[in-house]
């Protein structure tokens, strides 16, 4: 799912770039040796939905690599000019041929080793109608006991599905945040240097309780 | 806050690009006339925190354009290799000199006219220590009645602050999703074509209630 080409030349003027730390910055960037343009690289958002019909969820069998032949929730790269909800609805239509009403934000899963953030929304299918798009071999509705857990394409999709069924059983949907790590270390992958500690919401509510 | 240079040349081989719709795609991309590399453009995430100390929130006065001299929550572009929480903590340290424990996801605000998603986390300051970074003129703690509402740099920051104080008064923090639109139409800005309808969580919980 990574389609980022290497930066060797300046996309503004066509001259070679070099890696250096620009003034006022603290990390190496691709900087044009001719016009000085700094070419930043940033993580990308993959947006998708959990499309619901009755007690079933709509999954797509991937027609493209990576993970060709494995099952996924409809999802793909957010495009310029879109909101996150619009991207999620568009991907659901493109990959699964389903028109959905997009509901609550459901999961935000960091995948730093491939520089992606996967975001899924709950979505209600308008009708039990769907069709395989260009990137899908097959699209089908599954109830919880039919989910092909061993053939799910990506860990973020498996996690989102597990949270969905747990929350539905509990009668309340939450917002689920998590970081996915690779099963094996990826050679050359950047290693985040800043550990993040977790604050509890009560620490932040305390001032209110003191008023 | 937009630093995306125009794409005129291929960053992989240096030859000119042209705008065309690649096979199997449905929108125009910058495609290299020589090596065929497709150069996708995607929205970027701006990550920040609401840094809390007692009943106060930490704000930074911007030392750079856009909105130089206006107040903001510490926030900036997510970098390669980071998670959203790590980016939020790093920006808080860089811009405000404050070490925070990052808590719950608090707001996700789409800003499609500049191709950005602004994401803020609640954060607890470790100590009442802070210092202006390279991109800040001044950093200060504000209680609710001291917030300089007329001098806030960006609508997404004002909205996040208003949600914060409302939620704190209510005694429960939510996750707030919204789309910001420009006050005036931006010439040449892409217009999202797919309307998004909203599903209610009850529609999705219904199957559980029927079981």
Automatic annotation (TrEMBL), chains A, B:
Cofactor: Mg(2+)
Signal peptide residues on this chain, from the entry's feature table: none
Pfam families membership: NUDIX (PF00293), Zn_ribbon_Nudix (PF14803)
Gene Ontology molecular function, alphabetical: hydrolase activity
Annotated InterPro entries: Nudix_hydrolase, NUDIX_hydrolase-like_dom_sf, NUDIX_hydrolase_CS, NUDIX_hydrolase_dom, Nudix_N
Top-level taxon in the UniProt lineage: Bacteria
Occurrences of domain Nudix hydrolase (ranges): 39-165
Swiss-Prot/TrEMBL keywords: Hydrolase, Magnesium
Family classification: Belongs to the Nudix hydrolase family.
Protein name: ADP-ribose pyrophosphatase
Organism of derivation: Pandoraea captiosa
